[in-house]
Amino acid sequence: MNENQLGDLSYQNMKFLNEESISKFLHCPICQKIFNNPKRLLLCGDTFCEKCLQVSGSKNKGTKRCSVCNQSYNQDHIQDDLIPKKIIEDLRVQCTRTKDCQWVGILQEHKIHIQNNECVQQTGQEKQQQE
Ligand SMILES: [Zn+2]
Ligand SMILES: [Zn+2]
Ligand SMILES: [Zn+2]
Questions:
Q1: CA 86 to CA 123: how far, in whole Å?
Q2: From edge to edge, which strands make up the β-sheet containing 92-95?
Q3: Ligand 1 center–CA 85 separation, angstroms
Q4: What's the pTM?
Q5: Which ligand is nearest to the CA of 40?
Q6: Which pLDDT score is estimated for 1?
Q7: Angular region, 124: left φ>0, alpha ψ -120 to 50, beta rest
Q8: Which residue ranges form the domains of the chain, and what is each CATH number?
Q9: CA distance 123 to 131
Q10: What is the pLDDT of residues 89-112, one digit of tens each?
Q11: How many Å lie between the centroid of ligand 3 and the Cα of residue 105?
């Protein structure tokens, strides 16, 4: 598995809490999931995951068209959609990296949690204090 293809918001090792209550405006119209590195098309304002936009844009060669409204666009019309990105980073998630990890917090902090390798391991050992 190539994690680099997922963009800088990787939704691995976690699940969103109360995902069904999260606004549909934070869900990608292509994959129906929470935006993963949202990108907005400037001409029409529709937003997609970076990966979904790449995949849908490469389907028809030549002119790229928005999957929602069929507006044509080119690479210059793609912009980071920072507002949903920030809202998503502030959503509460639960860590699922290990079976025993009960960590709950916001997505942004989950990245730090993973980076710091704070997950409770399944080996039966208590969390290691490494400081
Ligand atoms: Zn998507
Ligand atoms: Zn559109
Ligand atoms: Zn964890």
A1: 35
A2: 14-16, 92-95, 104-106
A3: 13
A4: 0.80
A5: 2
A6: 39
A7: left
A8: 3-115 (3.30.40.10)
A9: 20
A10: 999 999 999 999 999 999 999 999
A11: 10
Q: What is the full DSSP assignment across the chain?
A: --GGGG-SS--TTEEETTGGGS-GGGB-TTT-SB-SSEEEETTT--EEEHHHHHHHHTTSSSSEE-TTT--EE-GGGEEE-HHHHHHHHTSEEEE-SSTT---EEEHHHHHHHHHTT-PPPTTSPPPP---
The whole-angstrom separation of Cα 30 and Cα 32 is 6
What percentage of the chain has pLDDT greater than the value 90? 73
Distance 28 CA to ligand 1 centre (A): 4
Ligand 3 centroid, distance to 10 Cα (angstroms): 14
Interval between CA 97 and ligand 1 midpoint (Å):
22
Q: Which ligand is nearest the CA of 67, by number?
A: 2
The two tokens of residue 45 are: 């304002």
